Amino acid sequence: MKKNTTLAIAVGLAGAALAPTASFAQSATVQQIMDRGTMLCSGHNGSYFGFVEVNDKNEWKGLDIDLCRAMTTAILGDPDKAQIVPLSWAQRFPALQSGDVDIIIKATGWTMGRDTELGLQFSLPYFFGGTQFMVHGDLGISDSSGLEGGTVCVEAGTTIERISANYLQTAGVEHTMVSYESAAELRAAYLANRCDAFAGWGPSLAVLRATELDNPDAHVILNDQLSSEPIAAAMRQGDEGFVDMANWTIAALLIAEEEGVTSANVEEMAATPPNPKVARLLGVEPGMGERLGIRDTWAREMIAAVGNFGEIYDRNLGSESPYNLERGLNNLWSHGGVLYAPILD
Fold this sequence. Notes:
Elements: H1 2-18, H2 28-36, E1 39-42, E2 53-54, E3 60-61, H3 63-76, E4 82-85, H4 92-98, H5 112-117, E5 120-122, E6 127-129, E7 131-136, E8 150-155, H6 159-170, E9 175-180, H7 183-191, E10 197-201, H8 202-211, E11 219-221, E12 229-231, E13 234-236, H9 240-259, H10 266-271, H11 276-281, H12 298-306, H13 309-316
Parallel strand pairs: 1-4, 8-9, 8-10
Antiparallel strand pairs: 2-3, 5-13, 6-12, 7-10, 7-11
Helix pairs in contact: 3-9, 3-12
């Protein structure tokens, strides 16, 4: 009898733990953003092409900028309330920890050290890419063994710096590593032949080679694939609600792409949802906003402002951009990539 009573209590407690709650805790960071009326996102000290860059009208653009604008719309209802703070790679984490920015969305790799030692939390990965080397074609090399005795240039404060040094050391390739504070300084050093190799993130090197160099054929991206890195938004630890907000911003953009919801048809989809999932996504079925402490229509407004994830990618990196970078791994799981969203229930 006693055993049955104990079991009944355990089952009752488990049921209570699993039961839905009537209210949801408001994220302190979301509330701070609402009170301020702007969302502070990381920019770059120059341009990181395709991700964080400044156009000829001195306006911010890029995949990371659009993700910031998406999240700003979700919280504040207006993409123009995103405030971009220019930061070098080395400045981004101190700026987040000091409160100078609310979030880092800046081609930032999710690593154990950052996760456990810097007081950061990361969102779902929204991009995958690895470190590679680009070299001057007249060196006549195809892999890193040809860099013996050479100079490798890299941007300071990035995982690329450590990954490149570890890779070459492990391969027994003697080299000199030179770090630069800004991307512009690094590009200038490479183009002035002060570096034999430019260590960088593969997608960024491909963009640079295709569009920013006078003669792309004079530069070779080596076969070595040094890493495969998940790129995610970084936030301060201790505000789980804000991490939820970032995760569901990314998830909603991916779900919209999966379901064919675009900036052009989002209002039509909201008026006549094709299925319950889209009805929940667009706030036709109540509850989508309450769980995050914001409006039920936040995803609808966000998609109307910036489009779904595919639209964001194509505009900044893909077929509608100067870079025409194929999506590859960064496609939806249903199209041969690795990007997927959690279940919207």
